[in-house]
Amino acid sequence: MxxxxxxxxxxxxxxxxxxxxxxxxxxxxxxxxxxxxxxESWWDRARGHRLPLxxxxxxxxxxxxxxxxxxxLARFWTSRGARFFAxxxxxxxxxxxxxxxxxYVADLATYDEDIAAALSVxxxxxxxxxxxxxxxxxxxxxxxxxxxxxxxxxxTADAVVLNSPWLEFQIAPVRAxxxxxxxxxxxxxxxxxxxxxxxxxxxRAQHEVADPDxxxxxNALWRPAQTMAVYxxxxxxxxxGHRTVASGLSIPVPVCVLLSARSVPPTRWSEELTAADSxxxxxxxxxxxxRLGPSVTVERIDGALHDVFLSRHDAREDAYRRxxxxxxxxxxxx
Length: 334
Fold this sequence. Notes:
This protein is α/β, with parallel strands linked by helices. It has a single domain (about 5-334), classed as Alpha/Beta hydrolase fold, catalytic domain (Rossmann fold). It is about 30% helix and about 20% strand. The protein is built from 8 helices and 11 strands. It has helices spanning about 70-80, 110-120, 140-150, 175-190, 200-210, 230-245, 280-290, 315-334; strands spanning about 5, 15-25, 25-35, 45, 50, 55-60, 85-90, 135-140, 160-165, 255-260, 295-300. The strands form 2 sheets. It has a 9-stranded mixed beta sheet, with helices on both faces. A two-stranded antiparallel sheet has the order 4-5. A hairpin with a 4-residue loop joins strand 4 (about 45) and strand 5. The chain is globular and about 55 Å long.
């Protein structure tokens, strides 16, 4: 296996290329990014005791048309003693190669290989027999992917944290009617581009609320202002995942779901889009979250964007406070 090298984020971040089995488009890789706690002793010198998340590993998975770039999110975990890892899935971000269709898979279970490769490097067995605790952290489509994975691998993770997970289609009542049409397209022409309209308002909202005291640098090739093309085969995989969630998952460990308090459709630009989720219907996501398992906490954050950690200052700080409260409670009882 290749060595860890400096990551594009600089500072304490490193990356490792994970070689995967080739597919019909050729060679395939995933990329694991890591940030480790600074102090080997892992003691909180100010309080004179051990940091609360020593012995915990976090694995983050990004959303659609996205990649990992959030330094502060990583440092939330490492400042508490956890080891932080982020996975750029195949055909996204650091893992995208010029001969590949960006983001394309025909089955979300394809990512089992990516996740297994990451966990192997992290030193985690799928039967949960290792000593370190594992927290799965997913945003949007990554939240859907990790939810399905955690349900299929019930002995591996110790907690699941979801940031606006895409658990239900944006027009939930038409999903059942739409699914057979998309399935037929996926069988006949899986790489046919599905119709969609993205005016770039979500990206604009992030720029509008950007905090100069908490800057983020984004690679526009890996995270375009307007979303990547949506293909029939990929959309079929997503709708299949939504159907599975609607039938109920069996995640046995505690789940925390962070969501905006409200949604606003991105049909025209308005200031409302800077204080709401313009990607998902959050009320539908909140209801779907209750089908993930027996222990689910839903946190609704006033003024939050789709990625709650990219919201304006007050909402972002509220999101981190709520996450800290939940993680502190989880660690105290686990």
